[in-house]
Amino acid sequence: MALWLGACAGPSSYIVLLPNPDGTVGSVIVKSQHGEQVVSKADQGVLLDGSKAPFDVPKAQITQDFGAAIAARPILPEHYMLFFDLGNSNLTAASKKELPVILDRVRARKSADISVIGHTDTLDTASSNYLLGLKRAQAIADQLRQLGLDHINISVESQGLTNLLVPTPMGVAEPRNRRVEITIR
């Protein structure tokens, strides 16, 4: 979703379309008694009364008019996936290397809230997989606390085999389904 901001009220009030953090750009339609204008390019603006075609807004003007609002935006959530060995709560070697990155990202925020959700593949029963997913999520939460995040709120839950990353029938070992998803807000 593209970010748009309104300048102070008045006859020359306008919005400007900013790119998303990933560089994509959405669009905004302004409809009024004066007509309809579509803004679909980054750093393009349009008057709120729709009376003028979209126009390019220089970066310096965007900073002057919207700098305070841009600075006040919260940091967007970040998402990570860590993967596990078959049937247990031991991280794969590659996933162990991700923990320092996650710690750095949490510490870069003034305050953080972390969600850890455990998942499994379909090798066992739903109830066994729920418990294994919970064990995996709890193991990661415990590791994060031991690594210095003991003052951060960490919520832990399991989805077991109900939210497969790679859909498989029951009884299939799929390494990408043996994971925890971590969200930092």
Helix content: 25-40%
Strand content: 25-35%
> How would you sum up the major sheet?
4 strands, antiparallel
Which stretches of 5+ consecutive residues score pLDDT under 50?
A: 1-10
CATH architecture of the largest domain: 2-Layer Sandwich
According to CATH, what is the topology of the largest domain? 60s Ribosomal Protein L30, Chain: A
Task: Give the class from helix and strand content and strand pairing.
Answer: alpha+beta
Strand order, sheet with most strands: 1-2-5-6
Instruction: Give the count of structural domains.
Output: 2
**Radius of gyration using CA atoms only:** 23 Å
Structure description:
The chain has two domains: 3-72, no CATH class; 78-184, OmpA-like domain (60s Ribosomal Protein L30, Chain: A). The chain is elongated, with a radius of gyration of 23 Å. By secondary structure, the chain is of the alpha+beta class. Strand 8, helix 4 and strand 9 form a beta-alpha-beta unit. The strands form three sheets. Strands 1-2-5-6 form a four-stranded antiparallel sheet, with helices on one face. The protein has a four-stranded mixed sheet with strand order 7-10-8-9. The protein contains four helices and ten strands.
Summarize the structure.
The chain has 185 residues and is α+β, with helices and mostly antiparallel strands.
